[in-house]
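User: Fe2OG dioxygenase domain-containing protein. Structure?
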Amino acid sequence: MLIIFSVYIYTVIRFQRYITRSTHHHLTSLITYNSTMGSLTIPKLLVVDFTNDNLTPGTTTWSSTCNDIRVALENHGCFIALYNGVSTKLQESVFQAADELFDLPTETKIKNIVSKPYHGYVGQMPIVPLHEGLGIDYATDHEGAQSFTNLIETSMLFSRAVKELENMVIKMIFESYGVGKYSDSHMDSTTYLLRYLKYRAPEMNETTMAFPSHTDKSFLTILHQNQVSGLEIRARNEEWISVEYPPSSFVVMAGDACKAWSNDRVLSPNHKVTMDKHGKETRYTIALFSFLSKKVEVPDELVDYEHPLKFKAFDHVDLLNYYVTENGRKSQNILQDFCGV
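Assistant: Predicted structure:
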């Protein structure tokens, strides 16, 4: 017990130094202590410091980080990004916007209709009573941000700021797989969906499951939450990991389209949201999802003797449409059933 406690003290000191930026390391593993269970948790999620001035293309720091991100996505399907491209004021504004949006009458919220599945309003569902969601498609464009909410500037500024992080991650993923020459055309063909997600605290004897286990149908998903945790990720080894966000951090997660593009190298992780049964606060998550307006297809460079082609090329929107069919809802391996070779 003394050894465990000593490790915990050492870990907390290191983590505090990390958060205050007094360390020069650009990568770390996030280690937390579960005071309820009295156990040391050694998570498995990579933390990448995108505020590091040395993280520029062509440097050894860049190259090693590209490799670390690739390994993280293959093993866990996600990593944590420390990113200062979203100011504290903008973070406060976007969560205030979430409060205002979800306080609107239900008859107003249900007008958030988007033709693509799960892009508009989701809520008032007995199977997930704690959850509501609102969406803005083409969120980085002025016309998209105008489509539903009068909180245009906040939504668009946030989306554009997080898009910059997404673009950097795309460059790093593509470079790590030796296909960096395709990253620009990929980004030019990307559209973005911004979703405001609410998970209210459960009432007495109410379920704590705020959203059931699922994978995203996006290429990448970037999540930013308020101070209330609840996100759990299932790693490739089937272990569930509770995600703790450091301040000003984002979770970068691979979706099914990224898994398909990588020829089954990248993990599109199952994830869910579980609320604390004793909690009293609402959990807000602001999520930016990326989708391709061109076909999702495996680069030739990612097909070889050890990695035969797993998936046929497909239109991204067709994956979304398949997901809401009876066969799509029943599928235990949606990519294999939808576009498997």
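The chain has two domains: 1-42, 44-339. The chain is about 35% helix and 25% strand.
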